[in-house]
Amino acid sequence: MKYDNVMKPVIKTINYIRSKALCHRQFQQFLLDIQAEYGDVLYHTDVRWLSRGSALQRFFSLREEIGQFLTKKGQPMPQLNDPVWLADLGFLVDITRHLNALNTSLQGQNAVVSQLYSHIKAFRTKLLLFQRHLSQAQPNTAHFPSLQVIVTSFPQINISAQMTKYAADISSLVEEFQQRFRDFAAIEKEITLFSSPFSVDPDDAPDHLQLELIELQCDAEHRSRHQQLPLVNFYRQLDEGRFQAIRTFAKKMLSLFGFTYMCEKTFSVMNINKSRMRTRLSDSHLRDVLRIKTTALEPDMDYILQSRSQYHPSH
């Protein structure tokens, strides 16, 4: 959903305002004088995933102020008076806001594959809801507040053709999500078994897990722990001798990850430590630094110090 007819003018305008120091200061002062909602526009870069939505949202909120400023500078932006273009802008602002919310929910530490997949499934269902709402004879824009503002501001303009286009674009987005995450469909039963072992019919479980699953489902104490503990801690406290197959299955599911958080974190730590100022840093020392920096384990310093006869070999 590139929408170049919207993104190119928006990026060009933002660059015009912010690329020159004098123009940028004049724009900030202009917003301050008229007591605008925000004090500046935001840059957009493809490298940062969330910047697209943030820049569009800020531009949309300041669209009237930006139009006034550009007119005073002799660089009017005719698109700001075009209701069809403004509708495209509003739709793009809203859909990127929904995508940014999904993106944010998929980030962070300690997220297991079942939680990530539930976010994906929920968003796909939301897209189907959006598609139905925009395909109606009287389109429902309740979940598209920016688009609703434009539709309300120009009641005399018929943009039903645009609504049909937005519904088709959302349909394409649904197909894209199905294509990109089709691998999860092959293991959806395993994900359900991992996240909700007490609600799965043992007949639907793999043969090597059925007996242990029955034992687990009939244990009231474990059922209570499953409701109270995170999944990682729940499977960790299972008796290894009694639930060996289930523990092995849980390790397999916990090893699946939906993002490159740890890889990116480790790479950043390596770049910080392996610099031109530390040319004598050996590979073994760098490996130790990376392990200490990226591990979630807390060292027992009291035990380590007590096990040493001298705290420092030079003493």
What features would you highlight for this structure?
single chain, 315 residues, mainly alpha, 3 domains, 66% helix
In the residues, how many domains can be counted?
3
Strand content: under 5%
Radius of gyration computed on alpha carbons: 27 Å
Main sheet overview? none
Polypeptide structure, described:
- The protein has 315 residues and is mostly helical.
- The protein has 17 helices and no strands.
- The longest helix has 23 residues, at 83-105.
- The radius of gyration is 27 Å and the shape is flat.
- The mean pLDDT is 88.
How is the secondary structure organized here?
Elements: H1 4-19, H2 21-33, H3 51-61, H4 63-72, H5 83-105, H6 113-135, H7 145-153, H8 160-180, H9 182-186, H10 188-195, H11 207-217, H12 220-228, H13 231-236, H14 244-254, H15 261-273, H16 283-294, H17 301-306
Helix pairs in contact: 1-2, 3-5, 5-7, 6-8, 15-16
